[in-house]
Amino acid sequence: MGILDFSFNKKQKKQSDEQHCEPLLYCELEKNISYMKSRFGGSADFTVRRLLLSDSTDAAIITMEGMSNKESIALSITNPIMEFNFKKHSENKIDLIESRVLSASEIVRVIDFSQAFTLVMSGFTLFLVDGCDIALAIGVQGFSFRGISESETDVVQRGSREGFSEPLRINMTLVRRRLKTPDLRFESMQIGTDTKTDIALCYLDSAVSKDILDELKRRLKAVPLKNILAAGYLVPFLDRKGDLSLFSGVGVTERPDTVCGKISEGRIAVLIDGTPSVLIVPYLFVENFQTIDDYSNRAYFASLTRILKYIAFFVAVFTPGMYVAVACYNPELFPQGILNKVASSVAQTPFSVFTEILLIHFIYEIMREAGLRLPRPLGHAVSIVGALVLGETAVSSGLIGAPTLMVVAITAISSYVIPDLYPAVAVLRISFIVAGGVAGLFGITLLFCAVLINMCAKKSFGVPYMSPLSPFSFFGMRDTIIRAGWRVLAKRQSLIQNQKGSEAESEEE
Amino acid sequence: MGIRNKISASQLFCLLLLSRGVLSVACGAFSGSGDIGSAALSAVIALIISILLSIPVLYLSKSGTEPLQNGAGRVISGIYALYFFYSVCITMTMFTVLRAETTGLRISIIAVPLIMTAAALYGSYKGIEAIARCGALILFAVVAAFVLLCLSLLSKSDILNLPPVGSYKLSDIITNTVIMVGEQSCIPAIIFIYTHVKGNVKKSVVLWLIVLFVCIFALSLFISSVLGDYALTQFFPVYSWARLSSFGVLQRLDSLFLAVWTAGVFVRLALLFWVISVCVRYAISNTVSKLAPPVFGIFALIIAVAAPFNSAIREAMLNTGVLLFATAFCCLILPAVLIIKRRLGK
């Protein structure tokens, strides 16, 4: 089974369920240890440390190498146990150890192997005593992880430099530190039958819609994957089934301040252990154009950048297609000066405008993909090859027209203004080029209509994806195309479930 | 979370205005005779007639769709499906004729109507909520485009081009009135949309008719003031009017007109296909209703593609007498039959 084989069929699921149905712990220590050893199949990181208690009872400490802090194990488990005189006490050993011996702050009672495996593999240390069918899992996690650092994907000019890290607990702390209200809730779940990935639903109890919360839990419980290794694995299961849209109704961020802002509007964040990406639902189209910087800057400047982002989106999607359509079918639309340049360029190059622009786009996407995966110094080399060798040489040799290259360059720059929408923009751009080449402006208009109706039909957890543009809400427009000042925004809190047309919309709305 | 599938009364207004407005944007296409200025007078008369036609439809709609789903009502639903199919054919024929004969673009004669049909069918499949939301956004674009066109042509407008009111021929006024009333296929469509609307439908419908005919009135006068007698020779005077526009370095804005008109036609067709599927659902069954729009769409596509080459088909599709009769029948006779049936049933 390769790393990409995450899906289940029904037969596999049944087999897997049978495999994962673990028995209860035995009273005999040896039986417990041998069962665990057999389940791990001699894995190198499975470690057993045997102890002899003061009353000559056998005990064992089970850990996964590198997952627990050895110093903490010694200080809070091994030393107190070895120094404690069990002969003086006649109580149940497990109760005694839990209440009077161990100094660790997090202790969980374990009765079956399934729970034991999950906790041990999460960094807990399992303490077993001969003659007891209950074990203690002690929280002494000590695996190494990346520290809190600035997110490279959500860069801001003003604002916090803290970004989410990989461990779930640290990410929860980052949110809790910013929202000091008892209304803030974290609900834990585990998904992925093999990875048993911990996730936490984070929301404000006073703001969240119970309908949306229940729906989110239902969809998460229905995730049939074996492995959850990144946030992206969950996104298709959170979008509505059969949605078939290029746009996603699930937002992704690596910034705790963004999460706090979103959940205060009634949204729910899904924190996933092992990834700094946090999912946010419901997520609307207009949110792709909002950044945390908009709220740090003055309203007039934030509004200007917001408008520029919308323009950049349209430029990124439509410009190459429009160029092809106009150059091929409606050249009269070009002003005289530009028409002359385009005409001479088309006359000097061997390809049609349609072929030229499609070709350059494919080359550009290949270079972009190559640049992403390469180490940074090599990435620069690719850029130089792309810009100088391919671009300059192609134009000077007469293979590609300069106006075409210009169009592709403007489009490429514009598409990076809204990085969240890049996948959709890239696909739409090529689709519009084809539509423009086949049916001119009619093709572009009709494809636009089809995309628009797809977006208008889309809902993110019952909230219209195009809200507040359509269904139109004047109130919602204060933070859509423009960003109103804080004095206006602070007057009334807008909750996501109260958007017009929302299925969870309250009756009085 | 319950699925409500409801549109607001204001969305209904936008949807009806756009769906009906796209035909008026190409007004004069049917008549090809008379002064476009007389259309302004016809608009006033057509407004009154349209309000009268909408009364039985609204009265019937108030009682829900139950009368359409049993007994004779099923047959009537089937007749409505055929009427809306006829409307689809007219719209697509106008679209292909304008595209093929007036714009002179070198685009495949089949490709554009085919894409249009596919896109409209996809729109209808997405449901009334999506069509209404999309319609509202497209209406905004259409209004913005027309404001731009009007501003760019303001300098070319001359009041001397308007003929005096007394010079309008009665026959032209009657012809234009017949066209304007005949094109009101959105009125019977209200019967099938009504249950999906929350809010005051009556107010929306009356407001829609007033705004629609005020726009037609204003547009007709403006076009007449720009084109003068030249409008008489044009099959699509609004397109000819748009061709004269220029804005800064942009010399030709008729492409802008074609783009917004195409978007409007898309919304109209999506709505009509959706209404057809509802009619077929009432008349036959839910399963067949899913197949009906593509089947009707293919037939409409064949007719529309053949229309520019076959004058008989074009005449049949653009026959004002048949159109008026069909609209009047669907707005007056069929609702009357259903109202009487309901009364007798009580």
Strand-helix topology:
The complex is a heterodimer of chains A (509) and B (346).
Chain A (H helix, E strand, L loop, with lengths): L9 H11 L8 H12 L5 E7 L5 E7 L5 H14 L9 H9 L5 E4 L2 H9 L3 E5 L5 E4 L29 H11 L5 E8 L5 E8 L5 H12 L13 H4 L12 E3 L2 H8 L4 E5 L5 E4 L10 H5 L2 H30 L7 H13 L4 H21 L2 H21 L5 H14 L6 H36 L1 E2 L2 E2 L21 H4 L20
Antiparallel strand pairs in A: 1-2, 2-4, 3-5, 4-5, 6-7, 7-9, 8-10, 9-10, 11-12
Helix pairs in contact in A: 6-9, 11-15, 11-16, 13-14, 13-15, 13-16
Chain B lengths: L6 E2 H17 L12 H25 L9 H32 L7 H16 L1 H26 L16 H13 L3 H8 L3 E2 L2 H27 L9 H7 L10 H30 L2 H21 L4 H7 L2 H26 L1
Parallel strand pairs in B: 1-2
Q: TL;DR?
A:
The complex is a heterodimer of chains A (509) and B (346). Chain A has 509 residues and is an alpha+beta fold.
Overview of the molecule:
- The complex is a heterodimer of chains A (509) and B (346).
- A five-stranded antiparallel sheet of chain A has the order 1-2-4-5-3, with helices on both faces. In chain A, strands 6-7-9-10-8 form a five-stranded antiparallel sheet, sandwiched between helices.
- Chain A has three domains: 10-138, no CATH class; 168-294, no CATH class; 296-457, no CATH class.
- The longest helix of chain A is centred in the last third of the chain and has 36 residues, at 422-457.
- In chain A, 46% of the residues lie in helices and 12% in strands.
- Chain A is built from 17 helices and twelve strands.
- Residues 1-16 of chain A have low confidence and may be disordered.
- Chain A is of the alpha+beta class.
- In chain A, helix 11 (299-328) packs antiparallel against helix 15 (402-415), helix 11 packs across helix 16 and helix 13 runs antiparallel to helix 14.
- Chain B is mainly alpha-helical and 346 residues long.
- Helices cover 74% and strands 1% of the residues of chain B.
- Chain B has helices at 9-25, 38-62, 72-103, 111-126, 128-153, 170-182, 186-193, 201-227, 237-243, 254-283, 286-306, 311-317, 320-345; strands spanning 7-8, 197-198.
- In chain B, helix 10 runs antiparallel to helix 11 (286-306).
- The longest helix of chain B has 32 residues, at 72-103.
- Chains A and B meet through helix 7 and helix 16 of A and helix 4, helix 5 and helix 10 of B.
